Amino acid sequence: ILDEYSQDAKKTEKDYNKSKNTSHTKTSQSDNADKNPQLPTDDELKHQSKPAQSFEDDIKRSNTRSTSLFQQLPELDNGDLSSDSFNVVDSQDTRDFIQSIAKDAHQIGKDQDIYASVMIAQAILESDSGKSSLAQSPNHNLFGIKGDYKGQSVTFNTLEADSSNHMFSIQAGFRKYPSTKQSLEDYADLIKHGIDGNPSIYKPTWKSEALSYKDATSHLSRSYA
Prior knowledge:
Elements: H1 2-19, H2 42-46, H3 92-112, H4 116-127, E1 153-161, E2 167-175, H5 180-193, H6 213-223
Antiparallel strand pairs: 1-2
């Protein structure tokens, strides 16, 4: 299904390049710009704690944000990544989730010059295929974006990592949306306009900039907090 939307993205890219505005708006950047809102604030860090383990009750509470876990493919000596090298486990929950947001994601991706397949894949990871409490009604936050949306927010426990990759738990405010469509639109707005002090941080992930969805994913994995 993700490949299907990647192919649609390629078909519309040529039309987009013909019609897009060639003028570029230059945005001034301040040396003292605000930090990335996705990163913990100083106040949140003051109240950090050790993360709960999977067998502890705390991790099962509804106010704890959960995400999908994934494992990177091993580096093979012969560089062979054929279908015999690994097994893919199908998930009906993930398929159902993709179907539920695919139409909106495809249209938003087409309008905003971003890969719908990448948007959907990130939503799968950040929301545990839509099963996390943060992603479900009444919150509808598919990407774990912090802050508030038109004044609406919800507080969750969430895991963060420091510069040494040590995990800790904090309480943070996350945006609360009327529906998943608004969450997808807000994510697209973030990808198009970046963060305070670095409006072009996600520009290499745009369809008009990245050679393929794989290049977009590679950059996003390094830059998305």
